[in-house]
Design brief:
By secondary structure, chain A is α/β, with parallel strands linked by helices. Chain A has helices spanning about 45-50, 55, 80-85, 105-115, 120-135, 150-160, 180-195, 205-210, 230, 235-240, 245-255, 270-279; strands at about 1-10, 20-30, 35, 60-70, 70-75, 85-90, 165-170, 195-200, 215-220, 220-225. In chain B, about 40% of the residues lie in helices and about 20% in strands. In chain B, a hairpin with a 2-residue loop joins strand 9 (about 205-210) and strand 10. Classes of the chains: A alpha/beta, B alpha/beta.
Chain lengths: ~280, ~270
Amino acid sequence: MAIVNLQNVTYRYPLTDESVLKNINLQVDEGEFLAVIGPNGSGKSTLCYTLAGFVPHFFKGEISGSVEVAGLESSASTLDEWVMNVGLAFQNPFNQISGAKFTVFEEIAFGLENIGVPREEMKPRVEDAMKLTGITDLADRSPYSLSGGQQQRVALTSILVMQPKVLVLDEPTSQLDPIGTREVFGVIRTLAEKGMTVILAEHKVEWIANFADRVIALHEGQIILDGLPGEVLTSDILLEKGFGISRYTSVARKARAIGLWKNSNLPVTLDEAVDGFKR
Amino acid sequence: MKIEIRDLEFSYPAGIQALRGITLTIGSGEQVAIVGQNGAGKTTLVRHFNGLLQPTSGEIQIGGWDTRKYSVAKLASRIGYVFQNPDEQLFSRDVKTEVAFGPKNLGYPNEQVEILVHEALEMTELSDKTEMNPYDLSPTWRKMVAIASIISMDTPIVIFDEPTTGQDAANIARIANVIKVLRERGKTLITITHDIDFCAENFERVIAMSQGKILLDGKANEVLGQEDRLATTYVDPPQLTRLATRLELNDTIIREDMFLTELHKKLTRTL
């Protein structure tokens, strides 16, 4: 069943002339893991904001078409209803951490405090969420004394504790080093395996190929490809439109041109490339 | 311009020893990438080059200038430093003013400033955005403004701190092109990066740091092929290197052309 349903969505930020989303049609099933790829400026972040209700409720501007997420209809609801159902993680965890709390535990409890969850319910919810993301040992640390990967996991945990029905992640590892990236993707994988509906905007195609059920490619505000990771991520169209592609795809495409790659499909991951070249 | 570092040690005031004896020479016109996990000392090292940090012991010479004897302002005429986050660097109302600030400050005559600004804007593909406020540009283009405002100073040495973080493929290609043009002009280039594929494709020499020391230093393919030693500083070899290793190709492969050549050789041998 579709938990996200966007019909003919077009959106323009205030004081601008051009639409950043153009006639978007998108359905995402409950429990599906959808990855969104696209160059900077293609509308990835705006799509994330739309799914999370920030567009139009926070950013204003002009929207047409219909947006339904987790049973809410955008035009008939408010941002505070929306945030109870959809969680959004920003690119940079610094922008998300409240700055009002001295420990990681309190930081994660902040959202629950705001909606008046009783203390006896709050504690186990925070503990469960920290266990899920593997940050139990950080509970008493200051959110600002952590590494980038740890901070991003704290930011994610503070969203998960709200028990959203849909989780939207806007390039959650773009500011992180390789260790931090691995930590955060580890958490995302756990969540997806638990059946959470995840929508992830991301450049790192090798990770997407390993995790996502489905990929859409955004270009100048339009969905130009929609399909299985292996199909979308190796499409020639990505190359033409200046998308980032995996080195494995790139080198196999060149090898194919000189007869050194025999498979009909191009690889995205290391294992696929090794298998293909061994034939 | 040459950089010479001898027995460099550095401890932060809180007592953390970030550099534990670095001796290193970077020749004039070399392109060096510094890799290694966070906390390995990469940024601490390069911040010594332009005098932002002073050695606890040991010394650094920039083209014969001892960094302890020259001010940061003086050293700025020899070393440009592009910050990781452009928002920590930009402050002018329009792109052109921003890019002209550095060379003006270094005291170049006006006509020279004009030429340097023009060239820098061209190299970074910003020529059509000169009147815009940097903060009205996308983060991708702001990064290019940050780069332009440093290369317009025409320093013999340029440092890039994590140039590809958060950038898309098109902009990474643009940054690689800037590096190529600067290389052709004989600049000494130093880049700190976690983007190991970018490093493999654009730099001749790679230094891997770990816990305040130099772990590996050599030609890119020599360093990036040492999977086990790189793992100790949490660096994975480039994608193509990993693929070539799994396929048991000869040599350490870091670029597509090398990969295809070796693959072809291997296949003709087995036939």
